[in-house]
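== Sequence, structure tokens ==
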Amino acid sequence: MTFRNRLQYLLVVRLQISNKNALELIILGEVLVNGISVKSNVELTQIDEVIYEKKVLQAGKKLIYIAYYKPRGIETTLNTEIPDNLKNILPFDEELFPVGRLDKASEGLLLLTNDGTLYDKMLRNENKTEKEYIVTVDRKIDEHFIKTMSSGITIMGKTTLPCKVRQVDSFTFNIVLVQGLNRQIRRMCYKLNYEVLSLIRVRIDQIKLENLTAGTYRVLENFKLSN
């Protein structure tokens, strides 16, 4: 079952009845959604509880959102067959998954959740959701580097979208992306003959890394994407 379905579909699947009979149960008000009798074929989400004749057809689910500092050297995967996977180091009993990726050599902010719709929201907001990084490279940064990184560089046959780049010191810069191309920042730097020594994601949308350190986390209350 997907995360968004009409009540009628849930009844058909859970009770093994026809569409007609499911709709009749709804119209008669015999189905409770979050404790309330509904008489229309409402849309359900994963947080909704559905009960028919005191039988729970769908348990309401508490959604969890966590800001987590992924350490360097950890793959952003829950596949335990892959060495240095994220699953083995997460300190949670709940089944949470990461939204978005950070490559193994990078570190910083990951969003962890049990909300299956969040990934879809992030995809719908593609080229809108900002992601901010602090990057240190192996050579001194100059004005040409900042200007070229900001205006766009062709990598993997695509020209990156214009982005915000600000110099922090001789070897470090701040960059804000709305794209998520594979190893985008590293590839952009490589095209300009720079090697990335350190890459830390410090913000996703309005969520900031703040004072988290590698392997630590904080629970996000009232989480909502700004777009």
